[in-house]
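In the design runs reported in the main text, the only information available to the sequence generator was the tokenized backbone. The following block is the verbatim input for one such run; it is reproduced so that readers can re-run the procedure and compare outputs position by position.
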């Protein structure tokens, strides 16, 4: 099988099910942003040493492939692919709660930085938030996206935030609180 098909040379691509759309279509933008998030998540996984965190990120990558597939499918073609479920979001919430129990409460915004892996969590978090906005664009444009997808992506950005704090704590890095400058 060739890597290139030449079918997209004129700015069109196919959704799962065969419908051709512009490469600037909101669905393509949404699952393209998920693809970007996957690349950042893979990089983050490569930066970590704790097997439990790496395994969880591998599970997240699997779920993100599912999200991407759901976004690339419309109508009956969606029945043929795996789905994101409420169980996935619950698993994510349990992990967030587990990490959060070991952290000091945070009552302010924290600035990224201090350790490359913690900063990479913030990159993943912000790309995740953009993916969420692109998914909302699809929904607001009349696209059918299951609620479980938006719930999972919303919670995933929270996971990246608490993981950044866990890494900072483990590396004994002082997180920088944002204190607004007032003239």
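Verbatim output:
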């Amino acid at each position: 099988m060739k890597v290139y098909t030449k079918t997209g040379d004129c700015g069109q691509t196919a959704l799962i099910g065969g419908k051709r759309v512009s490469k600037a279509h909101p669905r393509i933008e949404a699952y393209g942003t998920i693809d970007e998030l996957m690349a950042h998540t893979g990089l983050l996984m490569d930066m970590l040493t704790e097997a439990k965190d790496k395994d969880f990120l591998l599970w997240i990558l699997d779920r993100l492939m599912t999200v991407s597939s759901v976004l690339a499918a419309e109508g009956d073609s969606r029945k043929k692919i795996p789905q994101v479920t409420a169980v996935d979001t619950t698993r994510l919430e349990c992990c967030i709660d587990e990490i959060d129990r070991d952290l000091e409460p945070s009552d302010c915004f924290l600035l990224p930085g201090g350790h490359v892996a913690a900063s990479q969590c913030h990159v993943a978090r912000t790309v995740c938030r953009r993916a969420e906005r692109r998914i909302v664009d699809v929904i607001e444009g009349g696209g059918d996206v299951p609620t479980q997808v938006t719930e999972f992506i919303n919670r995933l950005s929270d996971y990246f935030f608490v993981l950044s704090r866990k890494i900072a704590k483990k590396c004994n890095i002082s997180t920088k609180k944002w204190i607004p400058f007032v003239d």
